[in-house]
Amino acid sequence: MATSPFHGIFSFGAQQNGAAVSGLPEPRNAQQVPAQHPTETTVGQIAVDIYEQDDYYIIRAPIAGVRLSDLDIEVDDTVITIRGTRRLSDAIPENQYYLQECFWGDFKRSVTMPCSVDPKKVKATFSKDGILKILIPKEEKVKIVRISEVG
């Protein structure tokens, strides 16, 4: 018997769903496994990278599929919260899914920064390829000012 051209591609999902590893997994409806669609109370999370440069902390989050109008950033002292909604653009019937890992719906991610954040100084960019970048200026370091004698 020849090996399926799909051998290995679906092996992880097939093992998880109980389908044969050599070929396409069975459709969800054949296994009577309900698709895991988000409910009204389900809130997803996004992955973030946080790194540091000389003058800034930077939060970077890949959020492809999110419209700028569906995105909100909240700053509260040391906590930065990213909220948004990833909307599914096409409706695919549940029984046509072999595997559904992508999260669609509302998401929220909060991160605590190592210092207080001035909301007026935070800048954010959203690239065409769906990368959100938040620049948080570091607090200015205390300078010692020499007092000179006048007169």
Describe the structure.
The chain has helices spanning 11-17, 28-31, and strands at 49-52, 56-62, 71-76, 79-86, 105-112, 123-126, 131-137. It has 151 residues and is mainly β. The protein folds into two domains: 1-33, no CATH class; 35-137, Immunoglobulin-like. The strands form two sheets. A four-stranded antiparallel beta sheet has the order 1-2-7-6, with no helix packed on it. Strands 3-4-5 form a three-stranded antiparallel beta sheet, with no helix packed on it. The radius of gyration is 24 Å and the shape is elongated. The protein starts with 10 loop residues before the first helix and ends in a 14-residue tail after the last strand.
CATH topology of the largest domain: Immunoglobulin-like
| Terminal-residue CA separation | 100 Å
Major sheet description: 4 strands, antiparallel
Number of helices: 2
Labels describing this entry:
151 residues; mainly beta; Immunoglobulin-like; 2 domains; four-stranded antiparallel sheet; three-stranded antiparallel sheet; 2 helices; elongated
